[in-house]
Amino acid sequence: MKTLTIRRPDDWHLHLRDGEVLKGVIADTSAHFARAIIMPNLVPPVVTTSDAAAYRERIMAALPSGHRFEPLMTLYLTEHTNPDDVEAGKKSGLIHAVKLYPAGATTNSHGGVRNLEKVMPVLERMAKIGLPLCVHGEVTTPEVDIFDREAVFIETVLEPLRKRLPELKVTMEHVTTSDGVNYIKSSKANLAGSITTHHLIINRNDILVGGIKPHYYCLPVAKRESHRLALRAAATSGDSRFFLGTDSAPHLDPLKECACGCAGIYTSVNTMSCLAHVFEDEGALNKLEAFASLNGPAWYGLAANEQTMTLTKQETQVSFPSKRDTAAGLITVFDPGFPLFWNVTG
Ligand code: NCD
Ligand code: ZN
After folding, report:
1. Does the N-terminal peptide bond of residue 44 adopt cis geometry, omega within 30 degrees of 0?
2. 250 lines ligand 1 (CB under 6 A)
3. Which of 85, 145, 247, 253 is catalytic?
4. Tell me: the pLDDT tens digits for 121-158?
5. Could you give the number of structural domains in the chain?
């Protein structure tokens, strides 16, 4: 039996939802992760510091007793966001990032930003106070092919923005392309990227070949194999600019298994087992701690966790539930498509 002990990991991009779904999914994260950057795309979204404080209370109330977990709250950037509220949120220790969703890019993003010009005063304030901007890096222009949206965003939105405001710290979230990886690697400062569990494992064939697989559909959509390989190389390199953001995004099964299914993959249950498998495959188990436990806190200006996590490679396959049963309904758990032998044992 092989074991691996690392600092306790954090998740730098997580959807916890609200109400019964929140209550049904939170333990899957808090069982393994000490902290998580909480996405603000609720209905209605978390737009002010007081919304975020109230949402944090609901998360803490849903936490199973005995679980220690720190939700790191974010604000959903809109064209009406007030820079003073953002600054007050950061000063109070509640707000750890502001999230930019280009309007229409993904689930619950219709209230997002249409015109970057209108949010420049907020971004300037964030640059001044050192608050990171988390970016959903896809353009939404209908003419741009869905598989090209990340690359076009880098060229037409992100690079001009970073030239204009080089002091702004930007997290390119859920990077899915070699273009994204190369862009992050080429930057000298103030840019980092999170990578999801599933983008290290699936490519677009997994979604489309042999029948459409709604539980592999997420945004940004998985790309061709060469991009998956670039993501694996980046994640397992130890490069401090890349860290884990699962983008675990639970949707009830009927909302995914229908004519217009929602984007989002629920990976919180088996993420650490999947990652240990991927890192072992790449001969890089010794880099898992950097990716899951060290690089993220360093980027967000926090200390790494003192507690540890032990992963054990078992002789027999680890079994995970295929569905998470919540009071609101069933949510399908990510199937990596191969048996998992690494288990969280301590
Ligand atoms: C996310 C969701 O469901 O909220 N979906 C997804 O496919 N990742 C939104 C997002 O992060 O794009
Ligand atoms: Zn997300």
Report:
1. yes
2. no
3. 247
4. 999 999 999 999 999 999 999 999 999 999 999 999 99
5. 1
| Domain CATH code at residue 67 | 3.20.20.140
Residue of 38, 39, 106 with the most ligand 1 atoms within 8 Å of its CB, for mutation: 106
Q: What pLDDT is stored for residue 107 in this prediction?
A: 82
247 is catalytic: yes
144 falls within a domain: yes
Range of the domain at 199: 9-304
Token duo for residue 149: 């949206």
- Residue 142 exposed, middle or buried by CB count within 10 Å (0-12, 13-18, 19+): exposed
DSSP 311: E
pLDDT of residue 53: 98
- Tell the residue number behind the tokens 């000490």, with chain if given: 34
Model-level pTM? 0.98
Q: What separation in angstroms does the CA of 210 have from each of 204, 205, 213, 223?
A: 12, 9, 9, 17
| Residue 109 CA, closest ligand 1 atom number | 9
Alpha carbon distance 124, 306 (integer Å): 34
Task: Tell me the residues surrounding ligand 2 (ion) with CB < 5 Å.
Answer: 247
Which stretches of the chain score pLDDT less than 70?
A: none
Ligand 1 pocket test, pick from 41, 138, 266, 334 with the greatest ligand atom count within 8 Å of Cβ, gives 41
Q: Determine contact, residues 69/43, Cβ cutoff 8 Å.
A: no
Handedness of CA 196, 201, 202, 203 (dihedral sign): positive
